[in-house]
Design a protein that fits this description.
alpha/beta; 33% strand; single chain; 278 residues
């Protein structure tokens, strides 16, 4: 989403025919241009097994939106179960119809919860994830700590919490990044505002089409821009025993290879993961 090396993007939903602002579904466009659920499932599986010596079987996806990652998780193994939490009932309904129902019997292994991610949850899972920087909606240390504490309580003993973050000096600049998706439409990441005192940011996603039509402000994000150091400190304050940054060490712009790192050289734009252990 931000200005980082372009990730491989895949989506099961691939609309046919010319796309225009009138006939396009913004959730389909988002999944095609932003999400790579198979890659993220692979990352969770690899890291969890590396540290725990066994496979994770239960996953909770916070801020799940269309629950694409939940769907990909249960597709990965017949014993896998997933729970998705989101505060927007309309996007959960969309995800159920387009991502879960096509799974057939596999859909029964996914539970969708329409609630605040900080609300009590009786489910206990091996892993919890909050991707696409969605948790940056919490703008104060107490609010972020409260969220992290709620995740800590919901994890099984030895469970792992997976987050992503972005940064680099260009991440704080007003800018527009255009990227053509499969020659069918253009995804536009709009870093509209950054406040150097509060670290409040306002970002948008726009879509442009070959017929000249546009879908402006299809998605809006009002976040606090958090640093990796702040997030790791808050995770430890919330009770996690460790918080490790996974940095992309690949030398190729077309590949990704996230590995644990304690130090890294800054870049114009970067994307990283944080993995915290209960």
């Amino acid at each position: 989403m931000p200005r980082t090396r372009q990730r491989r993007r895949r989506s099961r939903l691939r609309p046919n025919g010319p796309l225009t602002a009138r006939n396009a579904d913004k959730h389909v466009l988002y999944q095609m241009s932003v999400q790579d659920a198979p890659l993220e499932v692979e990352f969770i599986e690899r890291v969890y097994k590396r540290w725990r010596g066994r496979n994770a079987r239960s996953l909770r996806e916070d801020f799940c939106g269309t629950a694409l990652l939940c769907a990909e998780w249960v597709k990965a193994h017949q014993r896998n179960t997933a729970a998705g939490i989101d505060i927007d009932p309309s996007v959960l309904a969309w995800g159920k119809r387009h991502n879960l129902d096509p799974l057939g019997r596999g859909a029964s292994r996914v539970q969708l919860l329409n609630q605040d991610v900080r609300d009590p949850c009786s489910l206990r899972t091996d892993a919890v994830c909050a991707f696409n920087f969605s948790y940056w909606v919490f703008k104060t240390r107490p609010a972020m700590r409260e969220y992290f504490q709620s995740v800590h309580r919901s994890l099984k003993r030895g469970g792992m919490f997976f987050l992503d973050a972005y940064g680099g000096w260009e991440a704080q600049e007003p800018m527009l990044e255009n990227r053509t998706i499969r020659r069918r439409f253009t995804y536009v990441w709009d870093q509209d505002r950054f406040d150097p005192i509060t670290h409040d940011v306002v970002n948008y996603i726009h879509f442009k089409f070959q017929d000249g039509s546009k879908m402006m402000r299809a998605f809006e994000y009002k976040w606090r821009f958090w640093s990796l150091a702040e997030l790791c400190e808050l995770l430890e304050e919330a009770g996690f025993s460790d918080a490790v940054v996974y940095w992309d060490v690949s030398a190729s712009d077309s590949d990704e290879d996230y590995r644990p790192r304690k130090r890294a050289e800054n870049q114009p734009g970067w994307l990283a993961y944080i993995v915290a252990t209960r």
